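tool_call: predict_structure(chain=1)
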Amino acid sequence: MTSQPERHSKVPRRAVLGTALGGAAVAALPGTAHAAEEPVSSDGGGRRPWRLRDTMTTDGAWAGFLRDQDLLWTRLPTLWYEGPFLGDGLLGSMVYQEPNANKIRFTVQHGRVQDHRPEFGSGWGTCRLPVGHLTLEPAGTITAVDWRLSLWNAELTGTVTTTVGTLTLAALIHDEVLAVRVTADGGERATWTFHPEEAISPRKISEAPPAGYTANPPWTARTTADGTEQVLQPLTGGGQTATAHRRTGDDLLLSVGHSHPSDTAAEAASLRNLRRATSYDALRGRHTRWWHEFYRKSFVSFPDQRLQSFHWIQLYKVASASRADGPVMATSGPWLEPTPWPAVWWNLNIQLEYWLVHGFNHPELDALATTLRQNQEQLIANVPAAYRADSSGVGRSSDMFANRSVGQPGTGAETGDLTWALHNVWLSYRHSMDKALLRDTVFPVLRRAINYYLHFLTPGSDGKLHLPSTLSPEYPVVPPQDTNYDLALIRWGCQTLIESAELLGIDDELTPRWQEVLARLTPYPVDDNGYMIGADTPYAQSHRHYSHLLMVYPLYLVNWDQPESRELIAKSVTHWHALTGAHRGYSYTGAASMYAMTGDGDTAITYLRKFFDPTTRYPCQANTHYTEAGPVIETPLSASQSLHDMFCQSWGGVIRVFPAVPTAWADLTLHNFRTQGAFLVSAVRTAGQTRFIRIRSLAGEPLTLRHGLDGTLTALLDDGTPAHTQDLGDGTLAIDLPRGREVLVHSGSRPDLVIAPVTVSEPGPAWGLP
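tool_result:
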């Protein structure tokens, strides 16, 4: 075994850039920004300000653009991963044919509905529990459907044609209410039935209940004075799930409540939700206002119709599945189906689920940061009692409260998952620069997560610090010492703690220890094929996970800006995919993002397209969901992050605009793409060339831009005055951009500063069953 020398990619200090630049613009040189002289206005009022002409400001523009991204059905979906899906971050419904019946199923599931018996583990004792489903039964035999899932309105509309007439339907979910309107023509009529489902783990499809497990009590039904039908499901571990539905004319309204430890609060909540809804029209008004405001926060358009639609559907999907004030997504989101994974998985799934919210500029969807902030006591309780004074952790899978004990190094346990999840929260901090998030969540929880590691690091005969046996997630061999998964997370964690303490003005007594670990931690184990799984354990059999490559992605500790690391990165990623058989969808999305880091957009898109190739074993499905042995929501969402990594990256303190755009995509528009440092980036690429870049600073952080522009550059603030810049070489500028201000960077004469959809050059069919 050989070892790679230690290389650290330290995040730059948050210095005051204007001071560093000395308050002056550099001279005009090829590829260098300069203080371009702008024409003086006719009234002598100074330099000419600029502004973007955003064509995406009206309801009509958005409705027209998103209509081209909608999912369509001209035949009845028969499986959950073929049908329309609705959600509001809590309540979720999928629509498809009732198995072996002339009926249409609307599933009814809820992200907060779970069991509360931790003694039986996350698969059975604290798992997500099914609620039930509605069936719409027509009078005649269904012969055709014509459905549209409107992204703009987050609403399913269309018709069901039968042998005797037509049903016209519309459906949406808002404020924990599923609302469906069905009108009948000809000899048709609409008959609705709610079917409660047994409150038992969906894991029953793969194994028997654990010893000592007893079933939850049966549900009961009642009708309230106003005609609302209610199903009450008590739970053995305490708490209650209540489902209430009411039909008024053509409208059916349904709501689900869940409470614990209260045995009655859910009953009241489900009725209260229905009272607030009043009617389909009233709910729809509030619903569409929310979604129309939501979409306007960012915009992206590129010329591949199939992938562009997919990308926008993922934004719709994550907003349907998660809100910052709601439960963190389980592996299936709010759309529970039979699955061996009815819980939250912490060793890859939860991380991939939330990456895309940053670039899309939607921090209001980030339930992961909320979950770790609110459940710090549980994270402490998860580690063995001997370490609770200073440590925290979480096991591989848990409920929405992170309730799962974690094993300890030396026993072959998987111990790094909390630290990896905290990297997501660190990204939330870096994209918002919200110091409260750093102070109240990242720093205290990461400090305890790294402390847990520190209890087990021991010096070897080589003078280096070593970690006893831990599991590299999902690699099927005896857990080795010094797994690259854990070494990468320890390095990232110690670096981040040192930086965070400095940012927060904390003189932490553990800083010398973190510095010592960075200086003495054993190098990453490597061999002739690249990064190994761990000490004396090569990567020798196909592995779907990239747990052994975290230092490359997403941590970027070893990265393409380090010329000495490039050969090792390239052969490691190549060898990972050379051993075939175990790869899954996120194996391809992960490789796509790694190649995007190298600037190779053509190879990146080649790997990403493998996820959509129907000849692969586990491709993306008709409605953009994904399944292996059960639904897993993270992979399609991570595919959107792979696209983000092609369009704009911001690791290592540098914003990279259009770093890995595939050659075939000559035109691309980004608007208000959020990056680390809390910047909003707008940029336009036409005919294969970047035309302009506009950046708005939300926090006044130092701005370093790798622009990809050729020729003499111009950098102007929003009032038309020259920006103070410094040429850092390699097509990179440092720009002094105060908080709340914008800078425009372009080459040559000023281009048209227009934000608009690009023309599709690669047509493709709509998603769904068009």
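agent: The chain has three domains: 12-67+293-321+649-770, 68-278, 323-582. Proceeding to next step.
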